[in-house]
Specification:
By secondary structure, the protein is an alpha+beta fold. Helix 1 packs antiparallel against helix 2. The protein is extended.
């Protein structure tokens, strides 16, 4: 543990434990905090990135639809973070976007439609933060078909 981390970590750990955060959440934060306090450069210099020379046009690919592949597919959506900067006190995905439906509703309906249309067990996973998890679970409770 670097000296800066050693000096700061105990207070952060104590606060997280007092808030009842899981060991996994604390370990993830500790790792990221240790990288931050190490002073190590975590940026990827633009000079080290090169453009792709060419990509094939989708229309030129010989793609054969195979619904069986959906059984080994996971739909992953980033859902963490409150919209506090937008004056919200809930996940931004719960904003209504059309006809009384939120972003999260549209995503859930899309996944449910794939499951029904292709008779496949498409897995659906949200990457939540501790502050969006409760609202999200409540909103998704109307979609039991998601599992």
């Amino acid at each position: 543990m670097n000296p800066k981390m050693a000096a700061l970590w105990p207070a952060y750990e104590q606060k997280m434990k007092a808030q009842g955060l899981s060991d996994a959440a604390i370990a993830a934060f500790k790792y990221n905090f240790s990288v931050l306090t190490s002073g190590q450069n975590t940026m990827i210099p633009e000079s080290s990135i090169s453009a792709v020379d060419s990509l094939p046009d989708y229309e030129s690919l010989a793609v054969q639809p195979d619904p069986a592949l959906l059984g080994s597919t996971v739909v992953v959506k980033l859902n963490g973070g409150l919209g506090t900067g937008m004056g919200l006190d809930q996940a931004k995905s719960l904003l209504e976007v059309t006809q009384g439906k939120s972003f999260l509703d549209l995503i859930a309906l899309q996944c449910a439609s794939m499951k029904e249309t292709f008779q496949a067990d498409v897995k659906f996973m949200l990457m939540n933060s501790f502050s969006t998890s409760e609202d999200t679970l409540r909103a998704l409770s109307v979609y039991p078909e998601l599992g």
